[in-house]
Amino acid sequence: MTPSTPPLPPAEELALVDRELARLEHRRSWLLTRRAWLLSMIEGAAAARARDAAGPVAAPGGRDPGEASGRGAQNALLLLGGVLLSVAAVAFTVVSWGSLGIGGRGAVLAAVTGAALAAPVVLLRRGLASTAESVAALGLLLMVLDAYALRQVGFGGGDAVGYAAGAAAVLAAVWAGYGRLLPGLVLPGPAAVGAAQLPLLLWAAAERELLDWALTGTAAFDVAVALWVSRRAVRRFAAGCAAVTGVSAAAVAGVGSASAQSPGGALGPAAVFAALAVIALFAAARSDRAALPASAAAGLALVAGAGGVVREVLPAGWGVSAYALAAAVPAAAAGLRLPRGTVRGLGAAAAGVLGTAALLTLPLTALTLVGPVTALPGLWRGAPGDAYAALGVDLSPSFFAAAPLTLLPAAAAAAAGARWARTAAGTPPGTRPGRDAVRAWAPGAAAGLLWAAVVTVPAAVRMGYGPTVVYGLVTAVGTLGWAVLRRGGTVPLVLGCGLTGAVGLGGLALADRTATFTVLGVLVVALVAAAVATRAGEAVRAVLAVAAAGFGSWLLMAVSRAAALTAAEAGLLLMAVPAVACGVAAAAARRPRSGVPEDEGATPGPLAVALETTAAVVGAVAVLLASGDLPMTSVLLGLAGVIAAATALRPGRRRPAGATAAALFVLAAWARLAAWEVTVPEAYSLPVSVPALAVGVLHRRRVPGTSSWAAYGPGLAATLVPSLTASLGDPGWLRPLLLGGAALALTLHGARARLQAPLVLGGTVLALVALHELAPYVVQMVGVLPRWLPPALAGLLLLTVGATYEQRLRDARRLRDSVHRMR
After folding, report:
1. Number of Cβ within a 10 Å radius of residue 197
2. What Rg do the C-alpha atoms of the chain give, in angstroms?
């Protein structure tokens, strides 16, 4: 910024500085990754050149080298030797120790242990590191055996556990000093850390108390070693020991907190959790790599300690709420001026606890919505006393009383996370993946948890039935209004919550007639108004329209039940929903919000598709309701056909609606014929065949190349197949005569017009009818002829066919080709 340029406002300049810092951090991260990759490539190339320069190692005598390398064989031998020496030392100490005198014992201990500890000095000077490690391991084991041997001769008094604690402390100090004297050895440092795990634990076991504090002190020691010791092997081993002892201390404190019977009894475990949190936060402040996991562990410890105390203060059954409220402790700590990794860990711990508490409480929300439907004795059998009694469960009311107290902190935390994520809106995408993830899911989580908390309030406070219904109406309508007046990623979730609450409220209202009509009527009006007023897009409008149709159907079924209508009459009343839905779809298509009406080739929009699909489903339900009354079924199928035909006449790609209308009209005719007890199959097939053939004729005129099978096959088969089936079992002569005459006419027409479908279908039916009619006479004639005549005639036929086989084959091919040339 030049001196002549006016300075920016502080807020804008701060945003500019934050963006520049984010870009620099992103560039630095990329350069570090690139540098690591280049180093790995250089090291790999150097190793490859070294292998190429060394070449293959030939064994003596020209043999190939073995599968194991020299270093591997050396290590295997050293390990085996160390194991054997250790076994021998143990056997000597345990078995042969008593056979020596005091002087011999001292000499053996001094000589063997001193030699084992001194040998690595010489071995390291000669470069034999592996051998030195093996001998040093033997020396460390001998020191343990020396401590055991001293105990066997009565050294250390009568307290065996106390002696073991002191011996472990001495061994840890000696091994640590030994490792500092010989920095070329790796084993003594981790061995010293491992021995240091025992003194406090053994002392606590001897005293039979303060085990949690002993583990906490050991964890603090491990953290100090992991932070301040320079050797990597020791740091890593100490970090692992710190994790084990810390988790063990938390487990012991957790058992004590769970078994506490008063707030005072929970203070002791809470103090242990607080100490563990301080240790973890100290580790997080001193190590960038351990900042996130250590601070997360500190947050969980704070929640466990504070939650145990709060749980004893709150009423019974509020345990989950106690820990949800205790999550405010790490959340508040995260708001302090702490390093970024520590803040993220504390926030993750609070979010994890609140998320777990919310997941444990959400089943109560589901029970609040579904319970009244399953617990009510029947439709309009009387309202329950209150919202909790409507659930019909044996759970303690305190579970429901604590549900809002659990869900509200979770919702508040999600809202705070969404606000925190919005502060990084100006940073480049991908530079802060944590904030990107929180920005994606936190708003929806906040909205869903807030709605769940609001839904559980009536059962929590045991609200009366009437106020519960009013409260549910206000909640459902308010949620729907919030969804339709907003735009963004949370709209589908909020809309789903509103519709779910509306369905649950409808189930609760079934207990009382007045409540049923009030709730369903208000919801239908609210859904229609929301569908008209929404600014969230066509998809949301379609969902609202479908929901309005569904609740409208529910309302009409309640009306039919109140009016004592039959099932068929209820189906007729329900048919009003498909008519209205298709009418609304047509009106929306004529006046689209974009200002461009549908044209002939346009694809129907989501609102039209949703309404037409809903109309089809509700219409099918209406027809099923009237299935026991054939005349009314015919009427309903006809009405459905009229609605489908009106839909098919609208502009747009609605061929399925036209086909559906035709099928519905046919089904309506069949239902009417069945009601009249008509059993003649042609009465059912001809209403299908005649329109199908007419459509085929018109289609072939418009598209001359259409196959006769596509144009005429379905229509002809619809009549010929049922009539042929009926004629095969008809003892009379009129049906076979009429069917044979029609088949003959079709065959002649097909041959004259060179149409394959009429020719093949008519000829096949004619042949089958003729065979069926002539079969009795053929059987009678065969019974009159001599028994040798049929085989003779069959042989003569075979000889004739064989003699003229080639000619018959050419005739068959010409017939096949002529049929194939037809269309």
Report:
1. 20
2. 45
